[in-house]
Structure formats: structure tokens, C-alpha cells
């Protein structure tokens, strides 16, 4: 069976976490390509501004408020898409937060919030989307993870764990979704040029703007690739590191991040921020 590649004439595109960063830029990109794009996030004002910004494009933006950590909210979003706007052709699950974690001051809430938003939030969107697409016999799903899911990085104990889980989940679901006519992809950006990335506690490679990331993702959605990753130099470097023995892996990451020079964190809790790859 040939892989399904969604086009605007097939139906609605749904993007979670579309109020800022890559999600917002991608919503505008797809609306510019002619899609009617349903956008979901907890911030109604930002979504309304996005809808206004897209008013001159060939497609349109539909605001559907909802909290991805609430499964009933996501069921209601999908019901609104199905009964008010038409078939769901393309779903892009992008919501996430980056909560820095330091072993010197571990906090259960850092992990619980990260898992609730980054992992369970995707599952809450995924279940109704797959059910809808299964009934239609076709569909395309893209899950936005991160290159941080390839291997452990400083401060990423919670964030990286959720991104690795998303990669594994997409890989595992692909076997069955292929037989159902539903195409699944995993999106693994490096670090986007957002405040959370610029404030990171160790040096980062070249940052990608949300607009550049949206271009890369939009192109990847039209390709036959399972994984869409960028920038290639950075993501390939992390994949190569992962193949090395642990002793060498830790030594090289330590050196690249200059982590041995980093002082222990000051006491106090770090607030959750949008994740660097969002």
C-alpha cells in the first residue's frame, strides 16, 4: 500500500501547541498552502491573534481551545473537527514544555509535569485522531519530538525522557498504522531560536528559527520519510554519539557542553518553559 500524503483537498489539518514557536509558524505555513487548520492550545488570545494573522492566506485558521493534559478536552476538539469542519486528514502534535532538571535538586513535579504535557498530552490527542482516521481509512500523523530524545543531555532528565518515549512510541505504532492506511512520522528538530533555548545553561549549536523549522517540517510532511530531523549536522552528530561506547559518549558530551565548568544550580525551583525544539 502506498503511503498516504495529506493535501488540503483531503480535509482538515490539526496542530496542537500552535500558539507559539514552531507550532504557530507551521499553522501559518499550512494555511498558506490552502489548508483549513484547526489550532489547539490553552491560550485563547494567542490563538485568536494567529487566526487574524492568517486572514489573508489561501487557507484559514479555526480556533479550538483545549488543554492537552485533559483527555476529554481532546475528545471534544476532535468531535468539533469531525462534526463542524470535516474529515481530519493531517494531525501534528507539537505541544511540549522543557523543565530543566538538576540532580542536586530533584523535584517530582518536574517529571510529572513533563510527562503529563509532553507524553500523555500527545497520547490524549493521538487516541481520538487514530479512531477518526481508522474510520475514514486514511490519514497522516506527525509527532514532534526532539533531537534531545536521541541520548541523555545535561538538564534533560525529564524532557529527554519524554522525547525518547515519543520516538519509540511512533516507531512501535507504525507497524500497525501502516496496515490501517494511516501514515505516522516523527519530527526531531534540534534547538529552535526561542527564549527557552537562548536561556539554556550550556552552549547550543546554531539555532533554527521557527519559520525555518516550519519550512523543514512542511517539506518533510510531503516526503516519504518516517523521520524528519534538522539541522542535519546537529542531529547526525547526536546520532553518531549515541553509537559510541558510553565512556566516550559521556566524555564528548561533557566536553561539548563544557559541563565540568558549570557550577551547581542555586537552590530554588525552575519554572517550566516551552521546550527549545517547539
Automatic annotation (TrEMBL):
The protein, known as: Short-chain dehydrogenase protein
Question: What PANTHER family does this protein's entry cite?
Answer: DEHYDROGENASE/REDUCTASE SDR FAMILY MEMBER 7B (PTHR44196), DEHYDROGENASE_REDUCTASE SDR FAMILY MEMBER 7B (PTHR44196:SF1)
Checking InterPro entries in the record gives: NAD(P)-bd_dom_sf, SDR_fam
Family of the protein in this entry: Belongs to the short-chain dehydrogenases/reductases (SDR) family.
* Pfam families hit by this protein: adh_short
Pull one GO CC term from this UniProt entry.
membrane
UniProt keyword annotations, A-Z:
Oxidoreductase
Spell out the molecular function terms from Gene Ontology.
Answer: oxidoreductase activity
The organism named in the record is Rhizobium gallicum bv. gallicum R602sp
Amino acid at each position: 500500500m502506498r503511503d498516504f500524503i495529506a493535501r488540503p483537498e483531503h480535509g482538515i489539518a490539526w496542530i496542537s501547541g500552535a500558539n507559539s514557536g514552531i507550532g504557530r509558524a507551521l499553522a501559518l505555513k499550512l494555511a498558506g498552502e490552502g489548508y483549513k487548520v484547526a489550532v489547539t492550545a490553552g491560550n485563547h488570545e494567542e490563538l485568536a491573534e494567529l487566526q487574524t494573522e492568517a486572514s489573508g492566506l489561501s487557507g484559514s485558521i479555526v480556533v479550538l481551545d483545549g488543554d492537552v493534559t485533559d483527555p476529554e478536552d481532546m475528545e471534544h476538539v476532535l468531535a468539533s473537527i469531525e462534526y463542524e469542519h470535516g474529515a481530519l486528514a493531517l494531525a501534528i502534535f507539537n505541544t511540549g514544555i522543557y523543565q530543566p532538571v538538576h540532580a542536586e535538586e530533584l523535584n517530582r513535579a518536574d517529571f510529572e509535569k513533563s510527562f503529563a504535557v509532553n507524553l500523555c498530552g500527545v497520547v490524549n490527542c493521538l487516541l481520538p485522531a487514530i479512531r477518526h482516521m481508522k474510520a475514514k481509512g486514511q490519514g497522516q500523523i506527525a509527532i514532534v519530538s526532539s533531537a534531545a530524545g536521541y541520548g541523555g543531555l545535561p538538564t534533560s532528565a525529564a524532557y529527554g525522557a519524554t522525547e525518547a518515549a515519543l520516538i519509540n512510541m511512533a516507531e512501535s505504532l507504525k507497524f500497525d498504522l501502516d496496515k490501517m492506511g494511516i501514515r505516522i512520522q516523527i519530527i526531531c528538530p534540534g534547538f529552535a531560536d526561542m527564549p527557552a533555548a537562548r536561556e539554556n545553561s550550556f552552549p547550543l549549536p546554531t539555532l533554527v528559527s521557527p519559520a525555518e523549522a516550519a519550512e523543514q517540517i512542511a517539506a518533510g510532511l510531503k516526503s516519504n520519510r518516517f523521520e524528519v530531523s534538522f539541522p542535519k549536522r546537529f542531529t547526525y552528530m547526536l546520532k553518531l554519539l549515541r553509537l559510541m561506547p558510553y565512556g566516550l559518549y559521556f566524555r564528548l558530551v561533557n566536553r561539548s557542553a563544557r559541563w565540568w565548568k558549570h557550577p551547581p544550580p542555586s537552590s530554588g525551583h525552575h519554572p517550566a518553559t516551552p521546550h527549545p525544539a517547539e
